[in-house]
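step: validate -> pass
step: tokenize input -> pass
step: predict -> running
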Amino acid sequence: MSAQMQAENAAEESVKPQLFSLKTSLVSTGMIDNFVSETDLMKVSIKIYAEGGENFLHTHMTEDHFFIVLDGEATFVDPDQHKVTLHKHQGIMLPRGCYYMFTNTGSVPVVLLRVAATAVQPWVKDSRKWWQGVKDTRAPNRDGSNIVPGKFFAEGSALPESK
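step: predict -> pass
step: emit ->
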């Protein structure tokens, strides 16, 4: 076997599956964004919004992504103010360049599965582009002070310890 074929085989054998759990801390206010798996082309996260949402029209210029509602309800809005309300097990695909915003419109926190993919390398950390005249005024609330101790979405989905 040639050295090139050996190198190709070794590279292919080094690619392994990624196991992940959807277990995510619940929040009392604001949101949490829990990245559960990631490659150079794709990111998977669980986003939980106790209230609010992504309340400002924006797009992602270098990624296609989708949301699936796992619990609760979210209302998505486009630049023409067309609204669609999604419930548990419903989703929306947002190709790059598609402007949108959404809000938790249910009576419980909305739990979203977000999957994003890109062909741009390296991954652009924040490819958001805001709608004309829009400014993001959300408080970051990323210090963990909004986490409800001992309460989780998908609590029973934790993976066993690997050996």
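step: describe -> The first strand starts at residue 24 and ends at 27.
step: cleanup -> pass
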